[in-house]
Amino acid sequence: MEGYEYFNKNIRPLPKLRNGRINPQAPGLDDNDIDAFRHAYVSGVFTQDYGEITANIMGLMNEFDPAGAFSNSVNPRSRNMDLWNNRIGRKFGKKTKGRKALLRLIHQALKKGELIIDLEDPREYSGLQKPPKRLARPIVALSESESGRNEIYYDLIARRMMSREELTSLIRNGSYPGYSIKLIRGVETPVSRRDGKRINNIG
């Protein structure tokens, strides 16, 4: 909704509900400039919050069904457009810390033609085309407490959200061999077994 609100205020008006709020379910929001802006912005936010690698995988997952195959409901040109715009968002997410700055940069990218806003655009996305089928450590931290302790986790492959207690229990029963449990300030906390690969770290 942050992306929609910025777009509505600074680029062009979007369909509204009777209460005056933007209608995110309205027709005409796919495969065009607002769709491109939204994909880039969300990917940029994910990059700011969770890092470029995690943002990339989460974007890829959005284009596939849970079994890891292409979703039959997605037009290949639409998928190409989404992956392209996700990459643009990650690029600006790495350059910025605040969301306002990210929105401005994506707006500039839209003006300059960096985003794909039309399915007839011949540009082809050449990055990673599919999410990895298996990661030794597929867990990322989504939120943390005021003290900085990770509290909510997400399994990128299983697409499952877990609390710290749930993940701790699953690690203990052997469901996540790439992780271990460490007592931090008296609290059992999931940690990744170090292997030197950023993609396998909880962050």
Describe this structure in words.
- The protein has 203 residues and is of the alpha+beta class.
- The protein has two domains: 2-112, no CATH class; 139-200, no CATH class.
- The protein contains six helices and five strands; from the N terminus they run αααααβββαββ.
- The protein has helices at residues 2-10, 33-50, 52-61, 76-95, 99-112, 164-172, and strands at 139-144, 150-155, 160-163, 179-184, 187-192.
- The strands form two sheets. The protein has a three-stranded antiparallel β-sheet with strand order 1-2-3, covered by helices on one side. A two-stranded antiparallel sheet has the order 4-5.
- α2 (33-50) crosses α4, α2 packs antiparallel against α5 (99-112) and α4 packs across α5.
- It is globular, with a radius of gyration of 19 Å.
How would you briefly describe this protein structure?
This protein is α+β, with helices and mostly antiparallel strands and 203 residues long.
How does the SSE layout of this entry go?
Layout: H1 2-10, H2 33-50, H3 52-61, H4 76-95, H5 99-112, E1 139-144, E2 150-155, E3 160-163, H6 164-172, E4 179-184, E5 187-192
Antiparallel strand pairs: 1-2, 2-3, 4-5
